[in-house]
Design brief:
7% strand; 3 strands; homodimer; Arc Repressor Mutant, subunit A; mainly alpha; 53% helix
């Protein structure tokens, strides 16, 4: 269940109108044959649905990824989190500050005392369980036109890029 | 051929180290089974390679998309460009300002005189041809581990999301 009012009221920026991946009457030229543009199109659609589905928790994809990685990896350091997510250290600091302000994450002094370990708070653990179910439902919804086999195939093909 | 010095020296922000989509020893929990996270992983890898490949032209994916849409659609308006790309109007203004400063795009007074049409300059048309070849080579490179059939299948599966 989403928290009522125990977190910051700031909401992820809402988009204006719904994104149309193929606007009628528009020629897309070389874009239609690019894997990169197909990913970009999908990413915008998915992002819109994610923000709408997770709005009750004020959760963005990046915040969800951070919570999941902190939950799954004991003694995770901030620099490791940045590296895993492919973001700058400054971005990870901001991300963790936000999750800490929301009451979901705490910094704990690490054994070597030179860095902090990230942990979920009890409230963070409870919220993460609910948030994970909401994200999984969102992910199934945006891939609802694919069979289970096609969905697995899509994830596998994406994993072979780069 | 990339221009020598006719454009702004500002370069797309370089990332630090190379993104590793599966960091050794890290548990990804629910992330590994999400279409959304598979897309996010692919998008970071592709973005890195795109920026490196297009650095000679100072071209980001969004700048390339805008050039291609302006080239392929006569009398395109700024508000249409924003809608097609799924970005805010203010973002499209900034994007077109940058492409204009680079000498690739011009604003032309439209027939109804209430809005400007976007057109490529002669330099923009020449650059766009070279840039398109570089982007297509990049796109083939990042999908080099897929067969032609798998590549088409990936684009088709992505097109059924949302």
């Amino acid at each position: 269940m989403p928290p009522a009012s125990s977190f910051r009221p700031r909401r992820p920026q809402a988009r204006g109108e719904h994104f149309d991946p193929h606007v009628a009457g528009i020629e897309y030229g070389a874009l239609d044959d690019l894997v990169g543009y197909a990913i970009r199109r999908a990413q915008i659609l998915i992002y819109e649905d994610f923000l709408a589905a997770l709005a009750p928790w004020d959760i963005t994809p990046q915040r969800f990824s951070a919570l999941t990685l902190i939950a799954a990896n004991a003694r995770l350091k901030l620099t490791e989190l940045a590296r895993i997510l492919g973001i700058a250290r400054s971005g990870a600091v901001q991300l963790v500050d936000q999750l800490q302000a929301m009451g979901y994450v705490a910094r704990q002094e690490a054994a070597d005392k030179r860095a902090y370990s990230l942990v979920l708070t009890p409230a963070g653990r409870r919220a993460h369980a609910d948030i994970t179910r909401a994200v999984q439902a969102h992910d199934q919804r945006i891939s609802a036109r694919l069979s289970a086999g096609e969905r697995s195939q899509l994830i596998a093909l994406l994993g072979r890029l780069g």
